[in-house]
Give the backbone structure.
Amino acid sequence: MHIKDSDIVKKVISENATKNEAKNVIDWFSASIEGQQFLSDMIDRDAYLMEADPHTGLSFTPMQSNLLFARIEKKINNNRMRRLSFRVAAVLFPFLLMIGFGWYLNSRTSLFEGTTYAELYIPKGEDGRVIFQDGTEVFLNADTRIRYPERFGLLKREVWIDGEAYFNVASNNRRPFVVHTQNTAVKVTGTSFNINSYRDSDKIRVVLDKGKVAFETEQSSYAMLPGQQIEYDKITGKITLQNLMHPSNLSLWKNNVIFFYDTPLAEVMKVLERKFNVKFNVQDQDVLSYSYTITTKQSSIDSVMRELQKIAPVKFHLMDNQVHVSK
């Protein structure tokens, strides 16, 4: 509405306007600077005329005037409140959005709650398998302990291993997967690898089947490519990186296959002790000079010992969960 429409204003004041015209005039008075200025000028002009001629404006009764201005004032206040609400909303909305987004993240990742952990132990003579909420699959060898959060964090996924495990890590470049073990870590985004890190062993071995990982110590980080093995000596801190012809052989245990390649008898016995929950008793130290290369899917300690006896002149005799080793 513009000043040229002042005839409509006059019609409203004289109560000859339609409801629509009256509403438009009130909206114009309350919602626009131009309308409020027009109203102010009209009031000033009428006040001046009334002072000059006391009979001017008698057709606009005090009751009508009060009613009209009450409606105008209410409309102006409502619009002011609406504009104030919009300003407040403009300030509060991002804040409320952040709260809502934080609540959503919290429901998904426990971002603002204290992290709670679970622990799983696979005893000797058994094996296990875990699938995490992100889709990562972990095979656990005998005598292995894994500690993990009930929900992974927002920025990274972390687990702790003591033993041997094979990981099929669900790919997520923005949330790396970190396997901690005895002051070292394997950091990945999506890959498959085997880690052997028993506490009673001097060595930590990581074999990468596919993808890419970084093996990290307290001092350095070492990138690995598929088909490579890193061996870390916990005593000396020495790192050995080598390419393997058949890297998947090192994780055949997850398919219940026993694999040894030029493996000293002392290490063979450790593996079999865990797998079959037996104890080896060496009666002749000379037998420890032999090494074994074998791949077998035998499911009992008796059958495995018969296989081993075909390779080297060493005798194995099982009695009451004890395996006596001699020439």
Notes: The chain has a mean pLDDT of 81. The longest strand covers residues 157-168.
